[in-house]
Amino acid sequence: MRVHVDPSKCQGHNRCYALAPELFDVDDYGNAFELNDGVVPAGLEDKARLALANCPEFAISIEE
Amino acid sequence: MSETVYGPVTDWATDFDHASPAYAADMHKIWDDLKNSGCPIAHTDRYGGTWLPLTHELVHEIAYDTAHFSSQGPVVGQLKPSELEDSVPAPIGGAPPISSDPPVHAEARRLLLPAFSPKVIDPWREEVIMICNQLIDDMGDADHIDAALQYSQHIPVMVIARMLGLPVEDGDKFRGWVNLVLSGVGEERTEARMQQFMEFNEYLEFHVNDHVENPRDDLISFLLNAEIFGEKLSIRHVAGSVILLLIAGIDTTWSGIGSSLWHLATNSVDRRRLVENPDMIPAAVEEFLRAYAPVTMARLVKEDMEFHGVQMKKEDWVLLPFPAANRDDKQFANAHEVVIDREENRHAAFGLGIHRCLGSNLARLEMNVAVEVFLQRFPDFSVDANEMVTWSTGQVRGPRTLPFVVNARA
Ligand code: HEM
Ligand code: SF4
């Protein structure tokens, strides 16, 4: 599984980083990006889905 | 709570008043009735012409459409910005970035973002914990407390005053001024009100100038050093930003904390679950933000236009009721139910699009710590049946008094 943050949609609500810091990080302006090229380590799939389900800007996508 | 200058509402579809006590008391039913009667965008001639879109989809669309909707007037008033003597025109507006449109907005916002990023805000946690505990210590061993007047209203004031570098003991003054700006929309523009606005400006200019002479490690000094388009900010811009942070950060967070505590005072099952499982608090706070979203913003129509079948006129106000978007059952399952462990929660309490609340990381920290500490110290509390809970009217909604009985303390 891979996650991706679309930087043109992300407004820095910071939900992804709060819910899944293993998968996302934020820059100095609070905008998010995926860690590890978006590769989701085994066992963290639910966290990836949780982040997607809580992004108000629909900026996160998942490739199964 | 008194009526606005426009008097009681006669019809919610054609004569609504978002600042009226009737709206504050019954907004959920008003939204549902309007939507069910086939009116997703209500109108009123009040405030010189105002629209109220009610679905998540419409609110989302307008928030994103900065080409047609300007942020120059984020708070609806009796006069349009163009009718005010001291108004600053779009795309800058009187309080950048909240009043700004592209292309100025991004730059004005960029300036402040680093001061409110998660990694700068998280370290304030200990300080907020201390403030919350101190406020509870100050209540002594009283069984009857007011969680709004003795707790929630003080937290954001004490935090932002410390961050800005303003005297913490001036909290009552800030709150008075914030109230003047936000709650007074439907009231008459009296000499006394104008006088208070002047005092607010003078107070800030004094403190900003003091920071010019005596720089320190705080937000006002940070702003004085910051640059926009390659130039230092003017004193007026810095004072404007400070006003914005006070206005945007105090009433809103006070409301968010208060609504959360009110929910827990009136829902003992949820309260017990959080006392027993404090690690559920962050998700619960998101649900309180969704269900009791404190903030409704506004936009101004840039030019006459048709929008989903209605004719909007240049300079009409358009409200962005994020609280209504958050209760839209097309976007949220069981939208009117408060589900403290809701898994999917794309709520819009902090807005949508480019104006996303700049203070959202701080607001979330304050709400989480405030709930956490309150439950630790008062594992059982309820609303005092002999007293009244009162709610604010206008674009920021939250409880202004919360008379509680403390049934257990730890
Ligand atoms: C629970 C508390 C809060 C809520 C619900 C809230 C809500 C909002 C909303 C909905 C907006 C969007 C405005 C728009 O679309 O026009 C906004 C913007 C803003 N908020 Fe907050 N806010 C809260 C706390 C704070 C705090 C603590 C601060 C700072 C100390 C703050 C500073 C700002 C600023 C500066 C903006 C303007 C951002 C921009 O225009 O780019 N807010 N807030
Ligand atoms: S939750 Fe969405 S908008 Fe917020 S930081 Fe993550 S990707 Fe960006």
Automatic annotation (TrEMBL), chain A:
List the GO molecular function terms.
iron-sulfur cluster binding; metal ion binding
Q: Matching InterPro entries, A to Z?
A: Fe-S_cluster_ET
Q: Does the keyword Transport apply?
A: yes
Q: Which organism is it from?
A: freshwater metagenome
- State the Pfam families in the record: Fer4_15
User: What lineage is this protein's organism placed in?
Assistant: unclassified sequences, metagenomes, ecological metagenomes
- Full protein name: Unannotated protein
Ordered alphabetically, the record's keywords are:
Electron transport, Iron, Iron-sulfur, Metal-binding, Transport
